[in-house]
Automatic annotation (TrEMBL):
CDD domains: RWD_Spc25. Pfam families: Spindle_Spc25. One of its GO terms (cellular component) is nucleus. Belongs to the SPC25 family. This is Kinetochore protein SPC25. It comes from the Eukaryota.
Amino acid sequence: MRHTHVDLTSILTQPNPQVDLRLQAYEISTGNFLKAVTNYTHRAIAEITKHRNAQDADKRRLAERTQAVEAETNQCKLKEIELLAVLAKEQEETRDSEQSVAALKRQLASIRELCISIDSEIEQYRAIVSNLQREKEGEHRVLNEHAAQLEPELAACESWLRCHIEGIEADQLLIRFSHLDEANVDREFSFVLDVSTPSYNVITTTPPLPSLPILLNDLNETRDIYHFIKLTRSAFSDLLRGQS
C-alpha cells in the first residue's frame, strides 16, 4: 500500500472537510501483516520444535551411547580383572615351574654326581672281579695240578676199596661201592656227598645208613674225605652183616 500526500489546506477550505483514511486498505494490509507474522510464528515454532526434537533425539542417542560406553567400560574393567587374575595365575605357575626346573636341575646334578660315584665304584668292582678272576684261575690251575697228582692215588683207592667216585653236580660227589655183598657182587651201595659248604653233608645213601650222623661228624672234624669213604664202606659192610 502506497502512502498518499494529504493536502490539509485544500481539505480545510471545503464546507465539510473529510480525510480519506483508506481504512479498508489499512485493514487488508494489517491482515496481511498479521498473517505473515502468524505464518512466521508457526514456522518459527515448527523449526524450534524440529530443533528441540532433534536435540532430544541427540540427547537420547548420546544417553544411549553413554550407557553403551559405560557398559563397555564395565565389561572392559571386568575383563581387565579377569586378565589380571589370569596373569597372576600364570606368574604363579611360572614361579612354580621355575622352582620345579631348579629342583630338577639340582636332582640332575645330584644324579650325575651319583653316577660318577657309581661309575667309580663299578671300576673298583671290575678291578676286584678281575683280581678275583685271576685268583680263581690260579686256584683252578692249582686244583688241576693237585687233581693230576691225586689221580693215581684215587685210582688206587677206588681199586682197593672197590668203589667209583664221580661228580654228578656242582660240588657233589657220587661214591658207589661194589663187591660188598658176596651173593651179589654187583649190588650197589652208594652215597652222595655235598662239599659245597664248609660243613660237609650227605644228601642220600643207598641203602639208608643208621651210623651216618656219627661218620659225618667225624668227617667235619677231620676233613679227611678218603678216611670217611673207608669208614662208610665199613659201615655198609657192618650193615650187611647185621642183616644176614
